[in-house]
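Lecture notes, structural biology module. Today: joint structure prediction for complexes of two components.
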Amino acid sequence: MAAQDDIGSRGEFIFCTRIMNFCGRDLPYFRPRFLGEKAQSFDYLVELVDAAKGAPFFFVQVKTTRKGYTKGRLRRLKVGMSGTDVRRFCLLPAPTYLVAIDEPGEVGYIQAILEGMKDPITSVPASFPLDCANLLRLYQEVEQFWVGRDMARRRSVFSA
Amino acid sequence: MSESKQEWFVAERTRAFALMHLTRRDDLVVKETGGADGGLDYIVSITRKNGEKSLRQFGVVLRGTKNPTTEEQLNKTLRPTMQSLQRIGQFPYPVCLLHFTMDDDQGYYTWVAEPVVTKDGPRLIQHAQAHCRKLDREALDHIVASVDRWYEAFFETIAVKTS
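The predicted structure, tokenised, for the full assembly:
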């Protein structure tokens, strides 16, 4: 891993430290699985650890910047996501999020990508840092998403 | 909760912390050893000013624990680790151990093979005991400067120019 020209890699290390925060528990809330350099748009599949039912998960794209924040009352990190990626995220029948990393500050902010979104994202509000309060909320949100869906597969043409 | 599950997460997050710290300097190139290099987790190369990889490198051993600690406590906790690293053999280049504690996100470092330059030339002190200090940007700069200084002195000692 060449550090000098790859702030993207550094952003991923920062993301992993933040998403795997133990938050005073025995285990972290989340287990990130890197999808590889060649995965289009999606950087991580993140599993919920010790969920009550099933194996809930969500997808994340990590974007890293050194450009800093916009001025004004509602600070926004100057990093974005292309319209193509936004639309690709919307097609997934699973929760999807953009995580924006402020590289010098080593902090991350999360933003949900929701159905109907199609325009490029040019900045991310600094309202939802990846701290313990928001990790808990994220866990609950994703768990709730999957609890509301019966994803059990009971038949296949390949079953005896 | 199984202990091995917790250990797995501690190890994974320790790796992420180590990479986050080491990449604070943009002149370091980190290479995973895959455990093949005598107990080392990473080999870190210091690049030259023009970005070229150099032969100046140091080894990194990683450790992590869940609970917060102090430098004194950690020195005791790491005693078996330091002794087992000594048993592996003498390192021919600088090696430091990085330790991270999960509950307070704190990093520590201690030299396993410490590069020092004395009036008699470069020396590599093989430590059997940990002498932990907190790891931050300043500490990382100190580690890299010590390694750099040691290689300067080392090459001065061994290099002979032919005409």
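Point to remember: The mean pLDDT of chain B is 92.
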